[in-house]
Amino acid sequence: MSDMNTNNGNTGRLAGKRYLGLARQSQTLDGSKSVEDQIDLIRRECDAAGGTCVGMVALKNTIGSLPGRREDLEALKRRRKERGDFDVLAVQVVDRFSRGGAPHGFYEEVTFLKLGVEVVFVAEDGIVADSDFGDLYKSWKYTAARDFVKKMSERVSQGLMASLLDGRRTTALRIPYGVDKLISSSDDVPLYRLRDLRDGRLAKLHPKTCELIDTYGTSTEVGAGGRHKKQKSDKATFVPGAPHEQEVVKQIFALHYLDGLGSKRIASRLNDAKVPAPQGGMWTEIKVFNVYNQSLFRGVTYGLRVSRAIYTCQAEGKPVKLERDKATLMSDKWMPLIYRPPSEWHRQEHPALAEFLPPEVRRLAEAEQERRLREQYEYSVSPPERRRYGTKHAGSNYVLSGLLRTSEGEVLVGVASGTKERPRRYYRCRRHRAQPQARSPWKRLIPAEPLEREVLAVLREALLGDADLEETLVRMLKEEADAVRDVPHRLEQVRRERDDVRRKYNQIIEAFDGTVIEEAKAAIGRLHQRRQQLDVEIARLEQDAAGAEFDPLLVAKAMIA
Fold first, then answer.
1. Which of the pair, 1 or 141, is modelled with greater confidence?
2. Is the per-residue pLDDT at 439 higher than 70?
3. Residue 444, number of CB atoms within 10 A of its CB
């Protein structure tokens, strides 16, 4: 907007008013001066229009396409309520205020107006000010700003997918524990290694001798060599890392897959041996699990399994456009996680790690890891039914899990011990997961049977001592009966929706050829997923309908007996 003149319609509008400048940039690259240029323009235009500057808000690395994440606007509203030190919010152009579309832009403008603050676009108000069609123009600008984000996301998705297919990018962004990232030229000549030093720095090493060449910082800390940035044409893959980390990884895999130890016991052994965990500190169950559940140590990783994309997600061929719920787009800080079907996953090979593990360990790890991947996707498509009340584990025999608390307020959960032939049930504090060391006071196991027996005795005494117990139970059962009275109507609605989804699914399969079906893969997947969800809901409603008719009085007497 540097070619805009100062006569932009703001002359006189800001006379005697206090203005607060707002400058925003989605991604601040090295050498970029976008925010500074916006501030200079806002100050120049508003001062010429007679306004008084009370400050400037410079937002770097702040996206404008997700309204739910715009905490900066909420902070400005609180400032107006608490301090009341500005009357005008001055922004360079419409898309610097919001890229969330016309609904979000106008909503924020009206919200500020209710607080006595006018939003002024200093480089465009010559068009929108004092015009009957000003709001119409702004609606076009807001819509164009959102459309720009959609097109940008499609181009970015295409570029990321191309780099993944060419081997210029790994599916894992961070460098996992126990491995290095090898950077090679476009003709596969090794250039250097990158090793995570686990203290916020990256080390650049010789590809063969591992001699230190340079160090880099992360996005929050700059090392001696600045921030690492590889050449666009360079390729990347994972190779075995620091020797001491390799040994720890192999030990964890052997303890789990050969000796059958769980995460807690492995973490306890590592902590007793004074083995430092990644990023320092002690080993925890989740840290151990993240190691032995890492398929990278079998020489393969999977990309495109999940997505939090707003408008477009990566895919081989044409990017997949997402249909997000409007309310979600307007309110959520992060988009709900989408689990993609296995047919859309991208398998990436890392030959240097194919023989990292012994054959038997590798075979067992592959079976368990692949099973977990399948179960995770199947659970996302059709999660198991949960009870209306109580634990989500319908078959759990730990009736007090989640109900009991320690004197400190910590929740007790059920755990199993012993062997398959002689299982033993205990209750333990949930905090033990973060305290795997052997002498932690939170690891105490409380035998389940005597504890449940005592609680049941107290409960029986309290309930049977209530003279109005039968009346209370009847009232509660009548409320339950009223709640399921509408089950047949809801069941009919769900069946109609299931039939409609099935009809749409069959139309796509029958009407289109293979090429179009490939392009419509995402839509077919969503219909298939929705049909499975409806089948589960129908089964639950049919079960509820079967038991919907009962006599509350007879059931109450049976419960007391």
1. 141
2. no
3. 12
Mean pLDDT calculated for residue range 495-504 = 77
**In whole angstroms, what is the distance from residue 533 CA to residue 412 CA?**
32
User: Can you tell me whether residue 210 is helix, strand or coil?
Assistant: coil
Contact indicator for 206, 287 with CB cutoff of 8 Å: no
Q: How many other β-carbons are positioned within 10 Å of the β-carbon of residue 191?
A: 15
Task: Give the separation between CA 538 and CA 496, rounded to whole angstroms.
Answer: 11
Q: Which of 252, 324, 312, 313 is CA-nearest to residue 288?
A: 252
Cα distances (angstroms) measured from residue 5 to each of 2, 10, 383, 463, 547: 8, 11, 59, 81, 75
Are 160 and 314 in contact by the 8 Å Cβ rule? The answer is: yes
CB 122 within 8 A of CB 42: yes
Report pTM: 0.66
Tell me the backbone φ, ψ of residue 351, rounded to 5 degrees: -55, -35
Q: What is the rounded distance in angstroms from the CA atom of residue 61 to the CA atom of residue 63? A: 6
CA distance 164 to 201: 25
Between 26 and 556, the more confident residue is 26
d(CA 3, CA 124): 12
Q: Average per-residue pLDDT in the chain? A: 82
Largest CA distance in the chain: 88
Instruction: Give every strand in the sheet of 18-25, ordered side by side.
Output: 52-60, 18-25, 88-91, 118-121
* Cβ-based neighbours of 305, under 8 Å, separated by 6 or more: 339, 340, 345, 373, 377
Q: How confident is the model at residue 485 (pLDDT cuts 50, 70, 90)?
A: low
If one compares 515 and 430, the residue with the highest pLDDT of the two is 430
Q: For position 515, what pLDDT does the model report?
A: 53
CA–CA separation, 150 vs 331, rounded Å?
A: 18
Helix, strand, coil content of the chain in percent (nearest 5): 45, 15, 35
What does the pLDDT look like over 317-353, one tens digit per residue?
889 888 888 888 888 888 888 899 999 999 999 999 9
